[in-house]
Design goal:
Number of domains of chain A: 2
CATH superfamily of the largest domain in chain A: Jelly Rolls
Strand order of the largest sheet of chain A: 1-8-3-6
Order of helices and strands of chain A: HHEEEEEEEEHHHEEHHEEH
Largest interface: A-B, 47 and 47 residues
Shape of chain A: globular
Strand content of chain A: 15-25%
Number of strands of chain A: 12
CATH architecture of the largest domain in chain A: Sandwich
Low-confidence stretches of chain A: 234-238
Distance between the termini of chain A: 56 Å
Oligomer: homodimer
Radius of gyration of chain A: 19 Å
CATH class of the largest domain in chain A: Mainly Beta
Helix content of chain A: 25-40%
DNA sequence: GACTGGTTTTGCGCTAACGCAAACACCTGT
DNA sequence: ACAGGTGTTTGCGTTAGCGCAAAACCAGTC
């Protein structure tokens, strides 16, 4: 079990307000692990044996419906926690987590959570903040899905991805991990085909540049306009 | 400031694991208040001055978009907390809370939260559970909106409402507070008109009985079937 | 360097659901 | 009893986006 440098994680929201020695103690309980691109960290329905902190890479959390459709719940970026099933009172993972890039995680056995929280109440309040933030984001998503049309939703999704995991290039912002049209469809509640059409359109207009599982925003500002623009603008309430 | 009977609230998840005297101390910090039908408990964007526990009645939490559309986030039932902005790191309420029935709440000034949590760490973990549960529910909603069609979504919404706030009658289950087609539309991401058409259809078939802001499920079981039935069943993945 | 499997593009027909409009029921207060 | 307002129903034309199908594309692999 490799020792984790506290300085690498000390600034994370999860550990806000902790002293170095406390941090050390918490980290001692975790093991680190690598997951190669396209391997599962855990599967939906599986017993929640651990909770995780992503140190490196990107992880996709997705839910599968009884009929087999998949919905992307979120993309986890470096520094974020995931698989918190235990903390929110679940014994099984509610989604599947897959590394979309070679990734490195810290994993705490689920059983350590009650003990850690008892000893370090700040963990609970910090986690409450992050779960609360996710709840907000998910509500935003519901609102978008209810009120906006597909093109706006895709625009928002790209902007969010760019913000979260964008790599600045001189000719734009590149989304920093492999992402397919299918993935974007599953984030926005539409189909692969519709996403493809929309992105093709944008590429014509020079707003983006894209290839196989690769998207570069060339004109982020114009995409913001698209995202905020309402169909038949000045639009009335539903 | 009226004294609140601890026995009325002791069993609530929020207070799980607390001793009567602790409970007493927590309750001492709260004031109780009444809100008449159709009055706002707080408005979206307003400074989060308090957080609440609903003792009696029903409260609707809804978000308003920049363009004026409203989306119902959830209906709060007796015993549930709401307006937890502070706990999840917000200084303003992210939604508007309106009493849909004459309602009674307990209200804690936002400023008491840090102190209470510090003294009673169990509050944080209990709240984490409930916020986690809400996150799950919201994810379910996203999945439904992405994969199901309007009729199924409306069926699910009614079943959830019936479960949460259903009053058992001999000829069915009545949703225990005034709810309009508009409200249901805002819960399911569709329009008033479409909801009306669907409910009319169901009424023809004898599945429900309904009137002005009033819905009775006469054949809950058949509605479950509707909710689970997939268009062109055996349906393929998106 | 051809093969193979996943990804993307594009065309075309179809339909679920929207949007608008108008009429209608019901409840409340005067 | 009546008026006014809020909620509901229903018809009708329109359309955004789905679903299917087929082709083109691309990146590794053998």
């Amino acid at each position: 079990m490799a020792k984790v440098d506290t300085s690498l994680v000390a600034h994370l929201p999860l550990f806000a307000g902790f002293k170095p020695e406390e941090l050390e103690e918490i980290l001692r309980e975790a093991r680190s692990a690598r997951y190669a691109k396209n391997t599962a960290v855990f599967e939906q329905g599986e017993d929640a044996h651990s909770f995780f902190l992503l140190l490196h890479g990107h992880v996709r959390a997705a839910k599968t419906t009884p009929t087999g459709e998949q919905i992307v719940v979120r993309y986890v970026s470096t520094g974020e926690t995931f698989g918190l099933a235990m903390a929110i009172g679940l014994t099984q993972y509610p989604a599947t987590a897959t590394a979309v890039d070679d990734s490195v995680v810290l994993a705490w056995p689920t059983g350590t959570w009650p003990r850690l929280v008892q000893k370090f109440p700040g963990l609970a309040t910090n986690t409450l903040q992050t779960v609360g933030a996710r709840l907000q984001e998910t509500h935003t998503r519901v609102v978008e899905m209810s009120t906006q049309q597909v093109e706006q939703r895709v625009a928002h999704a790209l902007l969010r991805l760019a913000k979260q995991s964008g790599k600045k290039l001189d000719h734009g912002i590149e989304i920093d991990f492999p992402i397919s049209r299918q993935d974007i469809a599953q984030m926005t509640g539409t189909t692969l085909h519709t996403v493809s059409r929309i992105l093709s359109g944008w590429e014509q207009l020079g707003l983006i540049e894209s290839g196989r599982q690769r998207i570069i925003l060339r004109e982020p500002h114009k995409i913001v306009v698209l995202a905020e623009q309402h169909p038949e603008d000045g639009g009335a309430a539903r």
